[in-house]
Amino acid sequence: MSTWTLHRGEALSVLTGLPDGCVDAVITDPPYNSGGVGAARTSSTARQKYVSSDAKHTLADFDGENRDQRSYLAWMTMLLGQCYRLTRSGGPLLVFTDWRQLPITSDALQAAGWTWRGVVPWHKPNSRPAKGGFRRACEYILWATRGPVDAARNPVYLPGLMSVSQPSGSKRVHITQKPLELMRELVQICAPGGTVLDPFAGSGSTGVAALESGREFVGVEMSEHYHRVAHERLSRTIQHMRSQEELADPRPHQQLSI
After folding, report:
1. Are 119 and 125 in contact (CB under 8 A)?
2. What own/partner pairs with CB < 8 Å and gap ≥ 24 does 71-76 have?
């Protein structure tokens, strides 16, 4: 049975306390801080940015969305540098971004030592139309590795384009929640049985997908609310997996007598 650890704290602070080479892959969705060019970003919260004014849900806000471009580059470089240190040779990095932050995120990962391998578009079919222009129907996943691609250890073939809608209704428990179907596909970039690190665990979708696939998970979440949400989801996932194992093999375990 897979195991998981969920730290609560600021990502960079937590990562500096973890040992070298303790994970096999990093898959994460950091705060994008898009549009952080002036005073406007100091007065808007993540909820004001990502949730429409007519939304009826009351999803909790989160911190970390108020950096300008220079501070975002410096912060991301330090953070991805720690991720590089923690990842075993040949291990992959997948980091989400949007169209505004794609250039600066690619700069940060290369400055941190990663070898940039490509960009995987994530198409969101349920995106809203934009009057007079194009839908903002894509976010992007930057793929990099620590050194050469280790295809011998993980000879997987993955699509170069993902298309799945974000969770809605009762399934949506985080403002920027990524679809579980998407994360189940992405965790395959980690070698089988390996450990996936997510420094921005949010509601725990990366961890759920990792555990379901038989991989280990290490997460970090700063928000007390979302740390609790992720903890509950990860706990339920393990409980469900144990129940499925018992259904598959209902025979009682016999104790040998000596």
Report:
1. no
2. 71/36, 72/33, 72/36, 72/101, 72/104, 73/104, 73/107, 73/108, 75/12, 76/30, 76/104, 76/105, 76/108, 76/109, 76/112
pLDDT tens digits for range 60-80: 666 777 788 899 999 999 999
pTM of the model as a whole: 0.86
Q: At 220, is the secondary structure helix, strand, or coil?
A: strand
CA distances from 121 to 32, 158, 192, 199 (A): 16, 13, 24, 21
**Two tokens, residue 131:** 């009057």
Q: Which domain holds residue 175?
A: 4-248
Residue 254 lies in a domain: no
Q: 3-state SS of the chain: helix, strand, coil percent to 5?
A: 35, 20, 50
Query: What's the number of domains the chain is made of?
Result: 1
- Beta strand pairing call for 115-123 and 138-145: antiparallel
| Angstrom distances, CA of residue 178 to CA of 73, 113, 186, 201, 243 | 23, 27, 11, 11, 26
| Predicted confidence band of residue 258 (pLDDT cuts 50, 70, 90) | very low
Confidence category of residue 127, pLDDT binned at 50, 70, 90: confident
Strand order in the sheet with 162-163: 4-8, 216-221, 195-198, 25-28, 92-97, 138-145, 115-123, 162-163
The CATH number of the domain holding residue 38 is 3.40.50.150
How much is the mean pLDDT over the chain?
A: 88
256 belongs to a structural domain? no
CA atoms within 13 A of residue 94's CA, in its CB half-sphere: 23
d(CA 49, CA 61): 10
